[in-house]
Specification:
Length: 465
């Protein structure tokens, strides 16, 4: 069977403001929650709301995309990218979250960034908030379990849509929103860990507010940008049963639904029965204001965007941990792992595409897929990253299979087409890019950009469609 893609398929790359821009206090910007998180594994699980002296915070400088965006975009466009997913730093627009007026310097930066992307032929795909919130507002109002954030968010999206609505068709609300109940600081500004007293209640309350804000986004888009597409974005690397033991199968299914609850609400418009039982079993009682459920029911998303990196397995007795790629349970002996220990499972990618299409029957967008691994710069300056090339080819082939299966996928953005700060560890050594950036985990280096072998392979793939 000859496999082909839709003619307008969006091949691209994906970036996040706090992982690439740097310039954390430039042109009126104030700190975000991401600016308080140092380098280190599990860095988002425990942090403070303060920036300490003598500590390296990778978001502060990142790869200085804020200063180099034109030359970096030219390199990305050189691959033939048809789209680029970016995020907007809330603190460039409203530095403190509740400012009386938006910051014009921040607005102008994104005007210039979007204009340059469009000039170079890259369709903008914009994430409204990607793991960062105005720090001063978190200190003043608390985290997203406080309903005050609905008003702050309403002002923020109103400014974005009125300013950039003519430039952007594809929007996403909260990046990997299902991480709110498992990596709460990263996703909702909560200074708790799963297992802390009251942590589950706070996380579910924050998630409810995110559901309301998601519906608010869709409603405002319908009013101001009727041709826009609003997507929800989840981390959906999947979990298998470790054995065919019924308890393991059911356990894996239950863990999967802890993620799918989010997309069920934002795409189907209501809390599913299993979510109600989960909250009852946990003794949770959400504060739901009049009109919340009606708003969620009426304004559902247009498409489902998701990240996929790897899979894991579940066995009774496991106490799954979490990282930015999802649940970590039992080892799967049938899969190879990367140098950073993440299993590589391209067939699982096809499985997830089919699972989501069968469940929702809405267009799918691969918002993140990629391989974080070490690079070795040769004496001649070249980087032969064969592992990354094979990872991409294997997953792209399975994406084609999923489309042949009938899954309506309209875009794919490789995570980190240029090396950026790792979300999970804050490292630069964990590299995803087709373009190398000469910086180490402490931010030392020249910042020089260097094309890897994978750059040419991705370019060839896009050109042959």
């Amino acid at each position: 069977m000859s496999k082909s893609l839709p003619e307008q398929f969006l091949w691209g790359g994906a970036l996040a403001a706090n992982q690439c821009e740097g310039a954390w206090l430039a042109d009126g910007k104030q700190p975000s929650t991401a600016d308080t998180v140092p380098v280190g594994a599990g860095r988002f699980l425990r942090t403070t709301l303060e920036v300490a002296e003598g500590v390296h915070y990778p978001s502060h400088d990142a790869i200085s995309f804020y200063e180099h965006y034109k030359s970096d975009l030219a390199l990305l466009a050189g691959m033939g990218l048809r789209c680029l997913r970016i995020s907007i730093a809330w603190t460039r627009i409203f530095p403190n979250g509740d400012d009386a007026e938006p910051n014009e310097a921040g607005l102008a930066f994104y005007d210039d960034l979007l204009d340059e992307m469009i000039r170079l032929g890259m369709e903008p795909v914009v994430t409204i908030t990607h793991y960062e919130y105005p720090l001063n507002a978190i200190k003043k109002y608390g985290a997203l379990d406080n309903r005050a954030w609905l008003d702050l968010y309403a002002r923020y999206i109103d400014v974005l849509f009125r300013r950039y609505g003519s430039k952007v068709t594809y929007w996403m609300t909260f990046n990997e929103v299902n991480n709110t109940t498992r990596i709460p600081y990263l996703s909702a500004g909560l200074l708790t860990e799963p297992g802390d007293a009251g942590a589950v209640q706070q996380a579910f309350q924050a998630a409810h507010h995110q559901f309301v804000m998601n519906a608010m986004t869709v409603k405002l888009a319908r009013e101001l940008m009727p041709d826009a597409w609003i997507g929800c974005m989840l981390s959906l690397s999947t979990i298998y049963a470790a054995t065919c033991r019924p308890e393991d199968v059911l356990g894996a299914y239950v863990y999967r639904r802890r993620s799918l609850m989010y997309s069920d609400v934002m795409l189907r418009g209501e809390y599913p029965g299993y979510a109600k039982r989960l909250m009852a079993d946990e003794g949770l009682e959400l504060e739901i204001a009049d009109g919340d459920l009606e708003l969620i029911r009426e304004y559902t998303c247009d498409y489902l965007a998701f990240s996929y990196y790897r899979t894991t397995a579940f066995a009774v007795g496991d106490e799954p941990q979490y990282n930015t790629a999802g649940v970590v349970g039992s080892e799967n002996p049938y899969l190879e792992t990367s140098s950073f220990g993440w299993p590589k499972d391209p067939v699982g990618f096809r499985y997830v595409c089919n699972e989501l299409w069968d469940r929702y029957q809405v267009p799918l967008f691969i918002a993140e897929n990629g391989l974080g691994t070490y690079d070795e710069v040769q004496p001649d300056g070249r980087i032969h990253d064969e592992e990354r090339i094979h990872y991409f080819y294997d997953h792209a082939e399975q994406l084609l299979e999923a489309i042949e299966d009938g899954c309506q996928v309209f875009g794919y953005t490789w995570w980190g087409p240029i090396d950026i700060v790792s979300a999970g560890t804050g490292q630069m050594a964990k590299r995803y890019g087709f373009i190398h950036v000469d910086l180490d985990d402490d931010g030392n280096g020249t910042g020089e950009r260097r094309i890897k072998d994978s750059y040419h392979r991705y370019k060839e793939w896009i050109a042959t469609h």
